[in-house]
Amino acid sequence: MRLYFYGILPVGLGLAASLCAADAQAQTTATLRGTVADSASGRPLNGVSVQVLGRPGGTAADALGTFRLGGLPAGTYTVQASGLGFAPRTQTLTLAAGATGTVTLRLPATSLTLAEVTVAQPRDPNQSLAAISNIDKLLRPVNSAQDLLPLVPGLVIAQHAGGGKAEQIFIRGFDVDHGTDFNVSIDGLPVNMVSHAHGQGYADFHFVIPETVDQLRVYKGPYTARFGDFATAGAGEFTTKTRLDQSQVKVELGQFDTRRAVALVNLLPLNGHLLGKGPENAYVAAEYNFTNSYFDAKQHFNRFNGLAKYTGQLSDRTSLMLLASRFSSRWDASGQIPERGIREGVISRFGSIDPTEGGSTSRTNASAVLTTELPHEAVLRQQVYYSRYDFNLYSNFTFFLNNPVDGDQIRQTDGRNIWGYTGTYERNFQLGSRSLRTTAGLGTRLDDIDLALRNSVRRTVTDTIVTGRVYEQNLNGYLDATLNLTDRLTLNAALRADYFRFRFREDRADSLSGRAGKARVSPKLNLYYDVTPAVQLFVRSGFGFHSNDARAVVTNPAGNVLPRAIGYEAGSTFKPVPTLVVNTALWALHLQDELVYVGDEGVVESAGRTRRYGVDVAARYQLTRSLFADVDLNFNQGRLVGEPSSANRIPLAPTFTSVGGLTLRRPGGFSASLRYRHIDSRPANEDNSVRAKGYFLFDAVATYTKRRFQVGATVENLLNVEWNQAQFDTTTRLRNEAAPVSELHFTPGTPFFAKLNASVLF
């Protein structure tokens, strides 16, 4: 199989130049290395802030709790480590020119106080939402995989296939379907699927066990070079834990025959060794979930997840991460229902027109990350990964529109192998008294896919619409540089290059087969200014893109294969008082005309150019020592460009979303949270003649934790509001209906839903 590297030649040359660059100060400066851990458990503290007092900048501890600060002139320094929920600790040492000093910092747990939060992120300035995300990690309850994506401030989801499909995602004025304009990854594994049978960018996150997730890094807009395909509205990077605080067995029971069991077990004792003599950690986790859900027809939903992860320091300069996971799921679905079906008494609100919808899916992942420290304050990180993915879905969106006798059910299948490599080379330079941090990256991803779209009747295939094999490869490279222009002003500039090769071989029709190739260059430019330690201003801009389905590309290679997105924003992260953290952004995003492959019909549609503007506000406030409040407010306006005002609405694009709540954390182990989520009513079609209905819901969570056990309860939709999840303006025909009707179709949202859980900790 051929690999096409010429699309990233400019970045490759930049990487070579960085590797060969001289560091004139290498022998005259010192390096500080160290580790940070929880003083009680010895668990490495990933993401804890580390800085040398009295000097600008800083860094963060990695997954093993290790950190490195280079380019320090000889002298005596005090290094401090601090993190939310931990008391800061300092250590003083003297460094000689050309020498490396080491420190070990142990942080004791303490009550959470937002006065500890810092607004600047010297290690990764583009992560301007880091302060908000770090607070949310400790405060926002996560009870299922569906709760993980909404941890992204301003992101709202909707489910519409019995819990088995990927959720529909709304963010920054986008209905991004299942992930077309939002990039998702976990431990460096890409979640979005290119040329997926059900929709471009399909991001099924259900293979993640929520109790294993450690951190979330959020990047709104196309401003960060590390992300390429699908990162137009933004990206979410999740990481799983390196070591469990405690091993755990958890059981959960709820309404609608809901039951869930989770087990998480550390495999190595503290300071245990397996492959090396440095710090090592390993654990396994498993999850089983079953529910019949709240629909009239039982959903028979079941899901299994398994995970094994090892992270170790093999030597002073080399660390290794190994990960393997397995996910499988089966379900029956009630599908979307028409408003007239309920109005005319054909079905109940929780009924279905075609109760034979449903499907199955599975994913197996393997990943290895090798991180090596090189001379001249450089770090080389290399990751290889493989995924095997299978998807089988029966849907019926139009009921009896095309086939009045047997119905319009379709079957979509997707079986693929994914191979990938990502390599980054980081190096710090001293330009006089200023620091320049550079990152050069190279990567490739290859998807080998068997796809099919078929007609079916009650899950029996009757005809084939499209079937064939897709080979799609992305090669990419980028060069990212962050320069401290002054002690307060930071410049981040980057250039990313992507090259795609598409090939589709239709099994029956040569006219639908073909090859194509396309390149895209995406520059980024961002500025950050620290007015005070409590106020940071930023201005950001960048180009991004999302790829189109290979089946559409090969039949029209002259079209917009990689439609460009242009984004820019200005904002601030600030603390008007010590216990209040606020992030605001005024943003705009423009998308080119694009081709959209509609997997449900096997046809190509043009969506046209769009432009969006909006305001994001996120606030986290500590009212008392134990009581916290949070709120996200997102105002958006989007329009189709070049269309008359009477027909220029972007279907399903949200205009206002908000989530928030109150959280109580008592020192004795009791915590509770009352939360709300809201999305406004919005156009469901271009002329706004059909509107998707908004909702306002309350959820509640309470837990009580002691050293060896935990008990808890959750309630979704506390007030039992009738609400709609996924909603579409669809033309359908019911059985024996004289003519088709275009109106709102929807999946009913969860009614009052209570669950209890109990855990044993050891």
UniProtKB/TrEMBL annotation:
It is a multi-pass membrane protein. InterPro entries: Beta-barrel_TonB, Beta-barrel_TonB_sf, CarboxyPept-like_regulatory, Plug_dom, Plug_dom_sf, TonB-dep_rcpt-like. Residues 124-235 form the TonB-dependent receptor plug domain. Residues 357-718 form the TonB-dependent receptor-like beta-barrel domain. It is found in: Cell outer membrane. Residues 1-26 form the signal peptide. Keywords: Cell outer membrane, Membrane, Receptor, Signal, TonB box, Transmembrane, Transmembrane beta strand, Transport. GO terms for cellular component: cell outer membrane. Its main location: membrane. It comes from the Bacteria. GO terms for biological process: siderophore transmembrane transport. The keyword Cytoplasm does not apply. GO terms for molecular function: siderophore uptake transmembrane transporter activity. Pfam families: CarboxypepD_reg, Plug, TonB_dep_Rec_b-barrel. Belongs to the TonB-dependent receptor family. This is TonB-dependent receptor. The lineage of its organism: Bacteria, Pseudomonadati, Bacteroidota, Cytophagia, Cytophagales.
